[in-house]
Amino acid sequence: MQMQKAIDNLDRIIADVEDARLQLSGHHIVKIIGISKYNTSDDINSLYKAGQRAFGENKVQDLKQKMSDLEELPIEWHFVGRLQKNKINNLIDLKPTLMQSLDSLDLAEELNKKLEAKQKTMNCLLQINSAKEDSKTGVMPEDAVEIYKQISNTCPNIKLKGVMSIGAHVEDEDIIEASFKTTRAIFDELQPLGAKYCSMGMSSDFKLAIKCGSNMIRVGSTLFK
Ligand SMILES: *Cc1c(COP(=O)(O)O)cnc(C)c1O
Questions:
Q1: pTM: predicted TM-score of the whole model, two decimal places
Q2: Which residue among 95, 154, 175, 188 is the one 20 to 30 A from 61 at the CA level?
């Protein structure tokens, strides 16, 4: 990726984020995570030089490779993919800044057990399947608060920091907006319990997500195009 292209892409996204967040409040800060799953370590390096610091991957193996390629850079790494149980130990060893895709109580219990054995902790977001789509994992919105509390109470090595959701996979903006509002309402209920991040919004819908209260967006294709 050309340096000028990286600068232009990042500038454009920052301007769009500014525009959307200021419609909510000048105090509403949005963190941008660059999702680099379809891109090379060189592309990430260009965006890093342009000023982007946080990146996310959806496969443990790819995260490991890119962290190793770019180990001299103080990048903040996120994990956003489905975590297979046989990859849990590998992910723990990589110490991501934030694991955003904790998608069931079962996975939480398994992760907690392995964290305990290694005397480690991990910052996580609870993934919510807010549009109740079969193609997505995540807890059902009506169960989310209860499961969040249960993980907080029974999995001491998991540090829950909020929620993550993928917007409804449809054309109709009203339906996408409804899915974001569902996640936002759950986040509001969880803020008294310490939830800090409401991660929602991708390349196609991050402006809408921010208007619905997202404070963390995950952008891939529009950042790396
Ligand atoms: C790929 C991915 C993204 C980024 O998607 P784009 O549409 O390319 O912005 C965000 N979140 C998750 C969980 C992803 O897997």
A1: 0.97
A2: 154
